[in-house]
Amino acid sequence: MAKRPSQAAARSANGTSDKYQRILDAAIEVIAEHGFFHSRVAEIADRAGVADGTIYLYFKNKDELLMAAIDSAFHRFIQRARSSLDQVQDPREKLRRMAFLHLEALGSNRSLAIVFQTELRHSAKFLGQFSHNLLVEYFDVIKSVLREGQEAGVFRADISITIAAHCFFGAVDEIVTTWILSDRDRDHDYHLSSLTDSVVAIVLKGVETGS
Amino acid sequence: MAKRPSQAAARSANGTSDKYQRILDAAIEVIAEHGFFHSRVAEIADRAGVADGTIYLYFKNKDELLMAAIDSAFHRFIQRARSSLDQVQDPREKLRRMAFLHLEALGSNRSLAIVFQTELRHSAKFLGQFSHNLLVEYFDVIKSVLREGQEAGVFRADISITIAAHCFFGAVDEIVTTWILSDRDRDHDYHLSSLTDSVVAIVLKGVETGS
Amino acid sequence: MAKRPSQAAARSANGTSDKYQRILDAAIEVIAEHGFFHSRVAEIADRAGVADGTIYLYFKNKDELLMAAIDSAFHRFIQRARSSLDQVQDPREKLRRMAFLHLEALGSNRSLAIVFQTELRHSAKFLGQFSHNLLVEYFDVIKSVLREGQEAGVFRADISITIAAHCFFGAVDEIVTTWILSDRDRDHDYHLSSLTDSVVAIVLKGVETGS
Amino acid sequence: MAKRPSQAAARSANGTSDKYQRILDAAIEVIAEHGFFHSRVAEIADRAGVADGTIYLYFKNKDELLMAAIDSAFHRFIQRARSSLDQVQDPREKLRRMAFLHLEALGSNRSLAIVFQTELRHSAKFLGQFSHNLLVEYFDVIKSVLREGQEAGVFRADISITIAAHCFFGAVDEIVTTWILSDRDRDHDYHLSSLTDSVVAIVLKGVETGS
DNA sequence: GATGAATGAGGCTTCATTCAT
DNA sequence: CATGAATGAAGCCTCATTCAT
Lengths: 211, 211, 211, 211
Fold this sequence. Notes:
Number of strands of chain A: 0
Shape of chain A: elongated
Helix content of chain A: over 70%
Order of helices and strands of chain A: HHHHHHHHHH
Largest sheet of chain A: none
Number of domains of chain A: 1
Oligomer: homotetramer
Distance between the termini of chain A: 68 Å
CATH class of chain A: Mainly Alpha
Strand content of chain A: under 5%
């Protein structure tokens, strides 16, 4: 089949080797469209504007490519989150901001959102560890905020930080999942991040001290 | 759902022709072990104790079998949940009981839990709607409890029921996911359902009126 | 698959065992519709109003059933042809009548025609001999007419009877094939047998003495 | 027709990539041996000296391969016939030459003959049109010769050209079929084309003006 | 004799991966 | 480094045939 050079192929004109990143980006797109197991290497190569074989110069095999793609996307997300948190002090505000970042990041990139909600944990189970560490890292950020809050006396001391972190993450995560599965997403009239306050209002109330 | 070859096939009175259910159960097991896309029809047939071809007397193709399996398991779960709720009145207690049922059901059947956490939403996205209706049904149960609570004045009136339902579900769901992904599960010394109170304590606090 | 009892099934009410013939008829129909190799035993059984397994009480296997079906149909055709020829004397008229019978028989039963034109020789090659003998028999009838004609001096003596027989058969046969392949057949306004004289005019001229 | 992966694949200059034609030839052989529906892709691949999967680089599926094979063979036959006819003038001689070419071509390649006699019309009915156009083309050649003859006054004006063409084709075709079905073919002591004059003698007499 | 649920061998097709250019 | 034609293992599914009822 004569491959029609995709848009990405045009970019290869510019220069030497952004190929690695192009492949990674293409992978995320394709995974979002077809899901992990229905993603074909040939399609990723096509969309990245490289030959099938080229993939194997950068990745050992399909699984590693897909894992690297998810890892990479997640990594960039964490980085942004972390630096954003440094700018505020109040634990409550930090929590709010994390929720916002989460919803903002995924709400702005539907492909990424699909991959995170439907493929990430799926893959976590069946493809070894990969971003497991990153997930742990994400939880650690949440937990440290909660701990700060407890120490500052703004969060209840009688709750498990781990459980609370899961509640927080679960609530936000579930909002995203619903957004993905529903077709209301076609309505570009509301952004996922606009739900931040509603979610935070509940979770925050659940963990705050009854001052 | 899939058609049975004839009603006679359903006679589970003796032990012979419960093939339909045996195939369904085997499917759940295999999906839990290998994931949706790595499940091979031959293995399901083998584990159900039937020939490969027999599968196709009961199901049109592999996808329909897998979807039926997930559907069926989810359906049974909903039934149990619903009947259990009828036995209590207090909305807070109802919420607690739902969380318990959720954690109890999945904590007792690891295969089922894996399928629900890693395959269900995955499939919801890539295999059409199927259990989407069931998920909606589940949320409806939660929402009606929340509504009762608001009307009874025990839950805050200033929060969105939909958002609150997602927070509740998300929190419980996340607990299960973590349980699945962690390897502590090997420790059979603690049951997932024992986390019920910790989770409920937070979410309930978040939605309760500040009496 | 719940078999919907076909029309044929109703006929089984009458009595004991016309099953054999019913199966044979069903086979011809199904072969005409799907071709030899795409004919499924289950469909033949369904259309004959019997169970799949019943086929095997009457025929050793699928191939024997199909061969028997073709054989039987051909046999009936030959019988009719033979008795019809006995009623005329003139070799030229006999030839004309054979052409007419051929075109009449197949033109009246499209299923039969399809089977004869597309499956008979196909099968002759790939399924052993079966009706080969019947074909030979058919040619023998033609040849004996030609011989009579030569002896009576109405047909040229300088031509090979075998070759002439093939020319006659080939011409008529080709007319039928064209009729099958074309879609003009939908026009029920002309009958295949109406072409008799046109064909015979040519072939007869070719074999007649130039008296 | 099937697409080649790239023009480079067509370079039959060296011996490497005539794969497309090799597959086509292998297909004809295998079809001749086993018939259309008993031809296995694996055997064709094996005989063409390529891997099973390679077939699918050149053809969309089994049916398209088989149809392309028959088409291709027929096409080459027509080409040869056409150019041969240009070399003679007399319509009677043209007809003789067509019969000769027909018998010569198939008599020289038993595999091809089997495919043409047993599979071509079979397929025409059950596999869509494909070479139907080619058949029509063949008939057009015959018809134009007959028309020339009528205009030149050497062929009777009172016969239908279409019918006459079918008689001609039918006669020649039937000779081939008989040759295929008989086992005398094992006798390589006579060539099918040696029957040309006998056949032509009859058909020509049938269409000639009785000068 | 009759049934039809069950069997399981076998074929088409896909697609990750390799390697000669 | 890059290519992409070629490979071939592996899996879904069909359907002729059997056999317990």
